[in-house]
Request: fold
Amino acid sequence: MKNLSLTLLICSFLFLASCADSGLTKGQQGAVGGAGAGALIGQMIGHNTEATLIGAAVGTMIGYIVGNEMDKYDRQQLNHVYERGVSGNTTAWVNPDNGNRYSVTPQPAYTSPRTDQPCRKAEIIALIDGKEERTYTTACRDQNGHWQLQ
Reply:
């Protein structure tokens, strides 16, 4: 019952955050969405509060980076790395519009036992306004062939 209550609370928060015209930046919206998704995934995997909090923290960071800094060009580049990148080899690019730099090192693809979708883990290093951000992500291919960060 406690898990159901937590899940409903997080879903309610996400729904309200997405509906509100609060003037949140794309990064803040990404952080909110990432925190909620990360908390849900953490709870499903670990079935305890610690796993939920870790999931929320990781989701917040990934959501912020993706929501705030990665525009369409960067997401296309990231999708290309997940699709065609050689495992263990780093692919780098510079966004021509904002000068942000990204380096992505994908790992071998595997099939998710939960969803039966192809997935890949990767390390992403982003240099944004002179500040380096390093994160580890997992993306799975959706039914349309696009890689979605988990």
Q: What stands out?
A: The chain has two domains: 2-68, 71-149.
